[in-house]
Amino acid sequence: MDHVTSTYAKIAKQYAEEFSLATDSLDDFLGLLSPGSSILDMGCGPGVEIAHCKEKGFKVEGIDLSAEMVDLARHKNPEVKISLANILEFNTSQKYDSCIASYSLIHLPKKNLPEALSNIHSCLKKDGYLYVAVHEGQSNEGLYDEPFDPSLKIFLNIFTKEEISELLIKTGFRIVETKTRDAASSEEFSFRKLILFAQAI
Ligand SMILES: C[S@@+](CC[C@H](N)C(=O)[O-])C[C@H]1O[C@@H](n2cnc3c(N)ncnc32)[C@H](O)[C@@H]1O
If pLDDT is split at 50, 70 and 90, which confidence band does 2 have? Predict the structure, then answer.
């Protein structure tokens, strides 16, 4: 996790400025949910999605591994519970109606994905919904140049659609919808983006 926290410590502010709009197809995902239901944003970054979901009337909480990201998210959402925590270690007795993992699983090694998804599953109520966004490409993992500052490296896990879908299904999810888009700017990694809506069964 070293390269993830140390790199986000340096680029958190730039990231927040560049990615100031809610993540891909978030409103489509919110359309699946009951009005006012609870959402846990896992790897919430600077809190843009938390603010968006709150504005739409949902009860939101968030966690993130980066202290700098947590500070930014709390500053943007002072009334929201946002914890410094690792998806891999997070446990709570609370069950949420839905979870968001927007471009956070991309920083976890492949060997940890079953554990991460099972942790996310255990945060959800039965039939709860999960939003996942990852980079799509030939399956790979390793250190990549960070687009904001190529002298910095960051660990990335690149998925095929089949790979992430199978992982989700093996963990007890059904896939509700899959969307893709091309990278939109030079500040983004150049991979295609893969967005999945899944449901805990
Ligand atoms: C690319 S940013 C995405 C931020 C936000 N979700 C978005 O869509 O813009 C990835 C975020 O995931 C967080 N992250 C990475 N690994 C994590 C982990 N194991 N547990 C919690 N957060 C993690 C990073 O600190 C960073 O804030």
Answer: low
Rounded to the nearest angstrom, the distance between the alpha carbon of 45 and the centre of ligand 1 is 5
Q: Is residue 102 part of a domain?
A: no
Predicted TM-score of the model (pTM) = 0.97
Does ligand 1 lie within 6 Å of residue 14's CB atom?
A: no
Question: Cα angle at 125 between 40 and 43, to 5 degrees?
Answer: 20
What's the 33 CA to ligand 1 centre distance in angstroms? 23
Number of structural domains in the chain: 1
Of all protein residues, the one whose alpha carbon is nearest to atom 20 of ligand 1 is 86
pLDDT digits over 57-79, tens only?
999 999 999 999 999 999 999 99
CATH of the domain at 88: 3.40.50.150
Identify which of 21, 42, 17 has the alpha carbon closest to the alpha carbon of residue 133: 42
